[in-house]
Design brief:
Distance between the termini: 23 Å
CATH architecture: Alpha-Beta Barrel
Strand order of the largest sheet: 7-6-8-9-10-11-12
Number of domains: 1
Protein name: Imidazolonepropionase-like amidohydrolase
Number of helices: 10
Low-confidence stretches: 1-13
Structural class: alpha/beta
Helix content: 25-40%
Bound molecules: zinc ion
Radius of gyration: 21 Å
Largest sheet: 7 strands, parallel
CATH superfamily: Metal-dependent hydrolases
Organism: Agromyces ramosus
CATH topology: TIM Barrel
Shape: globular
Strand content: 15-25%
Order of helices and strands: EEEHEHEEEHEHEHEHEHEHHEHEE
């Protein structure tokens, strides 16, 4: 991890996130990413004591539904938009300001496949592709290669494929393989929406990098979970939208799948699917509480919500600040973290 650029307070070690923490037996151990800090004496909150964390990232949002500026005044400093028309992507990328945004651009889907025709899906947010029939020897780019390169040209840094067998046709394995190869050839990870029987297996066998949701329509068996972990697949949590606070068959399956994925060593990314149902425009404490219910401890929760994916490095010059003492228990962590704000790193000094 490199944090070499930019000035920083002399009190910090070279990498503030590697600062040694002093365990307090009355407080929850937040792990190595949390640093006890005080705000500088020059600002509006002079001398306020609290905790510094890396910038928070919601790895699954839809600005086309909540609006391009919906998270501008929140504690979320980074977002990954997993499905939007390319004109929205291009417009947002030409503006400065937080959150730092990464985009998948349009959903790639089979002809007539999800989310075509969904009431929430505006025109232009899905691109339908015919099955790939080429033998790989044609000198012309295939439809898949053209689609992926156009997405990248508009500013997408992630490719999203929809594999929803419950509502329509899905890509055959050859076409999905071609999409994964085209994306990887351009340095872009592939994220899949999986829904319906066999879709998790299809995504794992095709080498999809990230699942946009914890699988919620089918129990994922332990062998398949082991394969997903072995290829380094990561799962974006989105547990809250499987039940909106109520236990449902979908939410029970998702929680059980994520618990076993995490137990097997799988890497979890915090994501809310913001735009899907009623959720706070910022940190969703209910999503964090469900991650804790899936077995993630405080250091893992913080790692899941501060992972810079799909970028290799965290944003420079900004940090998360949570005022007051750290939580005493894991149960208190979600509401505590929901009070966070984004501050310039130079406004904080290590205690
Ligand atoms: Zn979504």
């Amino acid at each position: 991890m490199s944090h070499a650029a930019g000035p920083r307070p002399s009190e910090f070690p070279e990498d503030p996130w590697d600062a040694p923490s002093t365990p307090d037996p009355d407080r929850l151990d937040l792990g190595p990413l949390a640093v006890a800090v005080r705000r500088s004496l020059n600002g509006d909150h002079a001398g306020e004591v609290g905790t510094m964390l890396p910038p928070l990232v919601d790895h699954h949002v839809h600005l086309m539904i909540v609006g391009a500026d919906a998270l501008a005044d929140s504690a979320i400093a980074g977002l990954v938009d997993l499905g939007a028309p390319l004109d929205l992507v291009a417009a947002r990328l030409h503006r400065d300001g937080l959150p730092r945004a990464d985009f998948a651009g349009t959903f790639l889907t089979a002809r007539g496949g999800y989310p075509v025709g969904r009431p929430w899906a505006p025109a232009g947010c899905a691109r339908e592709l015919d099955p790939e029939r080429g033998d790989g020897r044609s000198a012309l780019p295939s439809a898949v290669e053209t689609a992926v390169s156009e997405q990248q040209a508009f500013g997408a840094s992630v490719v999203k494929v929809a594999l929803n067998a419950d509502v329509g046709p899905v890509f055959d394995r050859g076409t999905l393989d071609a999409i994964v190869a085209a994306a990887h050839g351009r340095g872009m990870p592939v994220v899949a929406h999986v829904e319906g029987d066999g879709m998790t297996r299809l995504a794992v066998e095709a080498g999809v990098d990230v699942l946009a949701h914890t699988p919620f329509t089918e129990p994922v068996d332990d062998l398949l979970i082991d394969r997903a972990v072995a290829i380094g697949q990561r799962w974006i949590s989105t547990l809250f939208v499987t039940g909106y606070g109520t236990a449902t068959p979908d939410s029970d399956r998702a929680l059980d799948n994520l618990r076993r994925f995490r137990d097997a060593g799988g890497s979890v990314l915090y994501g809310t699917d913001l735009g899907n149902g009623d959720q706070p425009l910022g940190v969703n404490p209910a999503e964090l509480a469900l991650l804790a219910a899936a077995g993630l401890g405080a250091p893992e929760l913080i790692a899941a919500i501060t992972d810079p994916w799909p970028r290799p490095d965290r944003a420079e010059g900004i940090a998360t600040f949570v005022a007051g003492p750290p939580p005493a228990t894991l149960d208190e962590l979600p509401e505590w973290l929901a009070t966070a704000c984004v501050v310039p790193t130079e406004d904080l000094e290590a205690l």
